[in-house]
Design goal:
With 434 residues, the chain is an alpha/beta fold. Helices cover 31% and strands 20% of the residues. The chain contains twelve helices and 20 strands. α5 (154-175) packs across α6 (183-194). Inosinic acid binds next to α4.
Length: 434
């Protein structure tokens, strides 16, 4: 039995699809535990077909796997139906998708609030995906949220929509000068959508617990990444949920002691979408080089990703806050053909929150992190094409040294390496499912 958490160790978009390719066919369950349709990753099937997955667990593409949208998610019913429709049109069997009765719903007023608040923040905006994720989580914590189970009880649903909109409409109309949202229409729309998926609503905690007790393998898919976690990320430039591994237990409803491995996905360089601090960001031709060579454009929003060199400080931090047992290093091939490859090993900080210093752990304050200057160590590069390598020993010596140095600085072993986008373009050093 293995219960493995997959978690992005940077700011998301580390290439989790590679890890689900590696393990997805050998597990019986794939569970998402946080976020919503703000996520997006591309999965390439063995026959070359490409799928962009946003809300539904990636196991939907593997026959026989049961997929769970956990209680920790916020589900946009319209986006769910659209994604299901896209999969079904391409002959993917979606019958094994279950939704936790306690998952929250993203309602149209959440999307409206996300957009108006971002506009209102102007230069200070978070750069959200505009999918209503933050406002849906706000309502969850404010105890004004609407859960999947409410769809099974229209009179409760009506009361909840009315009371949520009473306040939201005041804000939309009086503060943001927008049109009020009609509660009756909202109710009718969501009930019509629910009629198409309410048969999937289940007690997924219980089902998962029983499956784990039977010895089945479970893959828990985190979206976004460690530095976008609302508690452990670069707050306030974060998402509104907990992608870190502790969030997996909460957001799937299983005990933390059930987790047997935490695999961190680590890109061989760093990217970020949206606003917020990013010490190793490159705004010169090297940033452009990484963006072009690595194809760094958001799957979900189509936005260009900000790019920079590998940052060992955040990797070490991710190891610590997630309890990462193994790393999957992705996109190593993107770094081929550089004379020398920089690795950030620490920061110079002097943000006004204390005396100038050199640090090799995350600075204490947001101000120091915003002004952190990277301290680089330079490793010799390699020019060979590594996309055909299938064992560690086939990699050029300098690529091997780069990997070993990352491993040393990050503080956890590297168990797999991605050397290209294809399913088979992976070097496995340690197999986590036996
Ligand atoms: P939200 O999740 O839409 O509220 O956006 C909050 C922040 O998280 C923004 O900086 C987004 O760009 C970022 N974000 C959300 N989802 C993803 C993702 O899947 N990959 C990378 N960044 C993301």
């Amino acid at each position: 039995m293995a219960v493995m958490v997959l978690i992005g160790a940077q700011w998301g978009d580390e290439g989790k699809g590679k890890a689900t390719d590696l393990y997805g066919e050998r597990v019986q369950w794939v569970v998402r535990y946080q976020g919503g349709n703000n996520a997006g990753h591309t999965v390439v099937l063995p026959d070359g077909q490409k799928f962009a997955i946003r809300l539904i667990p990636s196991g939907i593409l593997t026959p026989g796997v049961t997929n769970v949208i956990g209680n920790g998610l916020v589900v946009n019913p319209q986006a769910l139906l659209q994604e299901l429709g896209e999969l079904e049109r391409r002959d993917i069997d979606t019958s094994r998708l279950l939704i936790s009765a306690d998952a929250h719903l993203v309602m149209p007023y959440h999307i409206a609030m996300d957009k108006v608040t971002e506009r209102y923040l102007g230069k200070a905006k978070i750069g959200t995906t505009g999918r209503g994720i933050g406002p849906a989580y706000q309502d969850k914590v404010a105890r004004l949220g609407i859960r999947a189970q409410d769809l099974l009880d229209p009179s409760i649903l009506q009361q909840k929509i009315e009371s949520a909109l009473e306040l939201k409409n005041q804000i939309l109309v009086k503060v943001y000068n927008r049109k009020a949202i009609d509660p009756q229409q909202t109710l009718e729309d969501v009930l019509a959508q629910a009629a198409q998926f309410s048969h999937r609503i289940a007690d997924t905690r219980l089902l998962l617990d029983r499956a784990i007790s039977r010895g089945e393998h479970v893959l828990m898919e985190g979206s976004q990444g460690t530095l976008l976690d609302v508690d452990h990320g670069t707050y306030p430039f974060v998402t509104s949920s907990n992608p870190t591994s502790g969030g997996a237990a909460v957001g799937a409803g299983i005990g933390a002691t059930r987790i047997t491995a935490v695999m961190g996905i680590l890109k061989a360089y760093t990217t970020r979408v949206g606003s917020g601090p990013f010490p190793t960001e490159l705004t010169d031709q090297w940033g452009e080089y990484l963006r072009k060579t690595g194809g760094e454009v958001g799957v979900n929003t189509g936005r260009d990703r900000r790019c920079g060199w590998f940052d060992a400080v955040i990797a070490r931090y991710a190891t610590r806050v997630n309890g990462i047992t193994d790393y999957f290093l992705t996109k190593l091939d993107v770094l081929s053909s550089l004379d020398r490859v920089p690795i950030c090993v620490g920061y110079r900080v002097n943000g006004g929150a204390g005396p100038a210093a050199e640090v090799d752990e995350m600075p204490l304050t947001q101000t120091d992190f915003h002004h952190a200057e990277p301290i680089y160590e330079y490793l010799p590069g390699w020019f060979e094409d590594i996309t055909g390598c299938r064992s560690f020993d086939e990699l050029p010596a300098n690529a091997r040294s780069y990997v070993r140095r990352i491993e040393e600085l990050s503080g956890s072993r590297i168990s797999a390496i991605g050397v290209g986008p294809g399913r088979d373009q992976t070097i496995v050093l340690h197999d986590l499912l036996h």
